[in-house]
Each structure stands twice: as C-alpha cells, then as structure tokens.
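Hi R.,

Here's the chain you asked about this morning:
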Amino acid sequence: IHLRVDVRFSAASVSSPLELWATDGTPTNTAPVAALPANPLEYSLFATRDRLIVLAMDGVFAFDGVSSAPLVIPFPGLVIDRFRARLAGERLVFQVRSTVPQSWELWSSDGTAAGTTPISAPFRRTNDTIGARLTPIGSRYVLSIQIDANSTLRTWITDGTAQGTRPLFDGSVSPVEEEPDGPNRNVANGLGWVRMWHPVFGAEPYVIDLDSSVEPLSRGCGGIGREAELFASLGPAPQ
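And here is the predicted structure, written out as tokens:
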C-alpha cells in the first residue's frame, strides 16, 4: 500500500461489509484493500507518511501498508469526535469525551497503541456544534480553543504530544468557519501569524513562537479573583 500516492476511501454495498478501497484515478487500479468493522458505518481517514489512520466514534484503526488487517485501538465507554480531528506532523490530534461529565480531552495517535494517548487535561468545548475548534497552523501544530476549568476561553497549541501541549493566551484565534475572506494564519521561520479579536480594537494580528516552551513559575500576587500568573519562555521545546 502506497499511502502517499493512492487515494483511500471507504465503500459499502448491500451484499458486502464496509471496505477500505484505494485508487490512483484509473478503473484498473481501483480495488478494495481491506474489510473494516461493520459498526459504525462511518469513518474519517487521515494519512501520515507511514500509516493510514481510520477514526471511528469508538476506536482508532491503523494500516501500516504491510498487513491487510488494521491495528485496532478501542475506546470502550468513550466517544471520539472524528469530524474535527487534525494532523500535526505525523500525529493525529482529536477530541475524546472524558470520564468527567461534560468534559473532553485532547488525544493524539501515531497509529500505534503505545502512541495513542491523552495530551491535555479535561476541558469544556466552546460549543457542542463546533467543538474545541482544532485549527492546523503550519505542518506540525494544531491550535485548540477551549474553555478551561476556570471558565476562561483560551487558545492552546499542540504538536501532538503532552509535552508540546500548552496554553498560549486568553482569547481565541479566528476559526476556519469564520474566515469568508480566506485563512488568516501563516507560518514562516518558526513563527506563526494569526488573527485574533481584541476586546477594544477588534481584529488584530498576533505572532506566535511555535517552538517555544512555556512553564508557570508562580501564581503571583493580587486581590481575590485577579491573581497574576508569571510565565517564562524557555526557547526551543525539548525534542
């Protein structure tokens, strides 16, 4: 299986189970590759350089291009939001309903069982219709707009690992569905430029150091309900 050349899609008929198919755009090379579990009947497909990751509401299925049978990673008792998953480099970032009522977590997968793990604390989604607004920026990062435990709307960034998942700032980047004039995110030389809404000045450009790491040093001081937070930028994130 050449994941970077062929197009993969799922198909079903009344006389056969749901199947993964591949095509290079010609009838001769359009054929089934492997059977998929019959339930649920809908999947989202994501291709990295080495694997095809098939996301369902109750599990992750990964094809390595060698075996016709996928690696099955079940999520018993949890619900995966397969509609808003995004690729961050060679990892797939997606939302999973947490065991905490009305909460979600960010997970990521590299197509292996050991590499499929939660990467964030539970959070509330900004809206049940649009989820946490997972927005790719560059080829290796995903922005996530969440409501944290303190009911603060905040933008996070992740590279698909727990170590590379951190808050950036309060407020939210303009999501894809609110950009009728085209994307307002660009990346160059390790920096990201995004459009955000300022409470006074409206839409303003912001710059993100994508490779920096941020660690909380102190809760600071101040009156009740207005405690300060001190953060330090430590340069490139550990590899």
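One quick note: The two ends are 30 Å apart (CA to CA).

Cheers,
M.
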